[in-house]
Amino acid sequence: MIRRCLLACIAAAVAMSGCARQTTGPQPRPPLKRVALGQSAPAFELKDLDGAFVSLQQFRGKPVFLNAFATWCPPCKEELPEIVRRYPRYKDKVVFIGIDEQEDAELVKPFVKRFKIPYRVVLDPGPVAESYGLTSLPESFFIDKTGVVRAIYRGFMTPDVIEKNLGKVLP
Question: Looking at the domain assignment, is residue 49 inside a domain?
């Protein structure tokens, strides 16, 4: 009984704290300065799962919800269904972008299909993680229509946290 309780506590701690970013080979150190509230979101241009380029700049004038995740990350898998559930309600008001960290399209495509992710997913080989200061997954950034970061959430988001942060970027 004690062992089961201990295992449940460990599983809950991992789910609530997020996953450390996995890297292969030498990687640049995380930047000393992370993206901050009230700061302009760093620009990026990444390829989506079909190889088309997607940039943050193309969505200027619209609020954006960025969610960084990886296929191997348990808390990412736990929060994704809640994000997917909110997409139909917010899709005409907020641009949702999933950012897969350092995995290739062949691994990510089945994951997107399995979780029925209806919004755009882009592949980050590392530059966005570096410029946004990602240190664990999942991490989410809520950007207003002028390109300013209004909310940052590091770790697993509950449905209430998702709603609260989406509300911070809506007019």
Answer: yes
Given the structure tokens 């509230």, which residue do they identify? Answer: 37
Query: In the block, which residue shows the tokens 């997607």?
Result: 54
Q: In the predicted model, is pLDDT for residue 28 greater than 60? A: no
State the average pLDDT over residues 14-40.
60
Report if residue 107 sits inside a domain. yes
Segment 144-158 shows an average pLDDT of 97
Q: What percent of the chain has pLDDT over 90?
A: 78
Number of domains in the chain: 1
Decide if 129 contacts 21 (C-beta within 8 A).
yes
In a domain, 19, yes or no: no
Q: At what angle do helices 2-17 and 74-90 cross, to 10 degrees?
A: 50
Q: What is the CATH number of the domain that holds 60?
A: 3.40.30.10
Residue found by looking up tokens 């990510």 in the block: 108
Quote the distance between the C-alpha of residue 85 and its chain's center: 15
Give 171's pLDDT tier (boundaries 50, 70, 90). confident
Give the Cα separation of 44 and 54 in Å (integer).
8
For residues 141 and 69, give the distance between their C-alpha atoms in angstroms, rounded to a whole number: 12
Q: Residue 125: which domain range? A: 35-167
Residue 162 scores a pLDDT above 80: yes
Cα Dmax for the chain? 55
Could you tell me where the DSSP H helices lie in the chain?
A: 2-17, 74-90, 105-114, 127-132, 159-167
